[in-house]
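Ticket #4471: structure export looks truncated?
Reporter: QA, pipeline team
Priority: medium

Steps to reproduce: submit the single chain below to the structure queue and open the exported record.
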Amino acid sequence: MNTSKITGKSILFSAPSGAGKTTIVRHLLGKFPSLVFSISACSREPRTGEVNGKDYHFLGIEGFKKKIEEDAFLEWEEVYKDNFYGTLHEVVEKLWSEGKVVVFDVDVLGGINIKSKLGDQALSIFVQAPSIGELERRLRSRSTETEEKIQMRMARAEEELALAYKFDVILENDNLENACAKAEDIITNFLNG
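Actual output as written to the record:
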């Protein structure tokens, strides 16, 4: 069992696909020098243009399962069959040792799991689109997903929306500029608290 100590603050962003969390996280990383992004590990192959260690730590299915056996993850989730994502202890501890506030962009269950382990040292934020219809519109406008993937993501979104109450803050992204400004205020209060 990993007996790492919690030594720093963290901010968790979770949302259904299409809510805009990654765009908001990128905005905040540019505004707050103390924030640093935690790069997740995954079992999938890199997509075109993705770089190992920059976008994700690409472990492959067997490599990911080996890390699970080694208890190397702060949290991990099998998001879809054989599609694993997780947060490596060593990545987070290194960032905390540098005095950084670690920002997580994780799926909803991952956010809940990390919050349960980090407690008050973590602020959990659920980013929500104004409606399920708007989520679907955003996913379709990306033109990166098959119809089957869109349907899978929409079914999962319904389940994820039902868990929003488990987060410290629900941030509605009805207008990106407003959502980014609200997020800045939330982060400022957390960092100064």
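Status: closed, not a bug. The export was complete when the record was re-opened. Leaving a note from the reviewer for reference: The chain has one domain: 10-192.
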